[in-house]
Amino acid sequence: MKRLVLTKDELTAWVRRMTEGVRVFAPVAVGDYDEFRLVDSDQADLIRWSYQNTRLSPKGLFHPQAERMFKFSTSKEDPEWNILKEVPKDFSPRVIVGMRPCDAAALKIMDVNFDTPEYKDPWWVRRREATTIVGLACTSPSSTCFCTSVNSGPFDTKGLDVLLVPLGDGRFLLDVVSERGEELCQQFGPGGKEADSEAIATYEGLKKKAEAALVPIGDLSPLKERDMLEFFNSPIWDEVQFACINCGVCTYLCPTCWCFDIQDEVYESEGCRLRLWDSCMFPLFTLHGSGHNPRAEKLQRVRQRFMHKLKYYVDKYGQGVACVGCGRCVQFCPVNIDIREVIRLMLVQCECAV
Ligand code: SF4
Ligand code: SF4
Fold first, then answer.
1. Cα 200 to Cα 9, 98, 141, distances in angstroms
2. Could you report how far apart the first and last alpha carbons of the chain are, in Å?
3. Residues 313 and 321 sit within 8 Å (Cβ to Cβ)
4. Which residue owns the Cα nearest ligand 1 atom 8?
5. So where are the chain's domains?
6. Who contacts 52 (Cβ-Cβ below 8 Å, separation ≥6)?
7. Cα separation, 282 vs 200, whole angstroms
8. pLDDT tens profile 304-350
9. Which one, out of 114, 144, 200, 201, has a CA that is 20 to 30 A from the CA of 170?
10. Global confidence as pTM
């Protein structure tokens, strides 16, 4: 597929053309952080092409933090009282521009939960179908990133339609990696010039440099090979859970955490059924109607989070861990609990540490 080189002005003009035909979401500065927001034609030059990573991952564009699923009336005078009606949602075509490769890889992990042969979440599926993704390679990964250790990488194209690579001289290499990306380029011509051998050599050099900047965390295959109960009953969880305050930040920021709760809220005679992100770190998450709570202790909740990502998911799906190494949980945990250290402890526990 084609590779082009665009100046930053050409790139901005391309995004601007997109905004005139489809909805475009892109990273922009919001307060102290960067966030994916809907941008219009006038905002195309506000897009952050050199951001480190957004604090909130773009998973919320597919699985919103709070979403009105259905509405209903509780008034008996309404002939359709207590009948659930779907709240209209926008599934028109859209492009997400500037998504980091780890976040695109995370969507593939989320698909395992929301789009399976047995069960399809209709809103997830329709949003995925409506979306073309233009990724942005990481030429300077953060010290908290470890994507190359978990089946991804700073130039990984998994889950992307187009990859943009900043060449370091104000130009971008545009790599079309799917048919959908090809269609996007046909619909909104990006302009630019065909990449010459010099631009491709620069791209290859930047890729190698970025990959070399990431510190490997070791061979994770023992996580699959060892028995689940060995990990479950390990004494390491006492050490891991010690400082945790169960704030849930790690799960809310994680691009692969998919848990949610469904609640009905009623105001006067108007009701709505909401879907809201939830977290296995909260005691209420597993509280039964009987009052029994199978994960009443902090240790059980902390263990659940890591066992789900690093063992249950691995065993169930055979596709590696449910982590893309974005480093958000490492960066924002208020008590510095580091999943890389948890992995190390698990590997030490099976005497396979590297
Ligand atoms: S962010 Fe840290 S303190 Fe908060 S729940 Fe996660 S591991 Fe615990
Ligand atoms: S577990 Fe942490 S490093 Fe892994 S994907 Fe989630 S937030 Fe990123």
1. 20, 20, 20
2. 39
3. yes
4. 244
5. 3-65+82-212, 221-349
6. 34, 140, 142
7. 48
8. 999 999 999 999 999 999 999 999 999 999 999 999 999 999 998 76
9. 144
10. 0.94
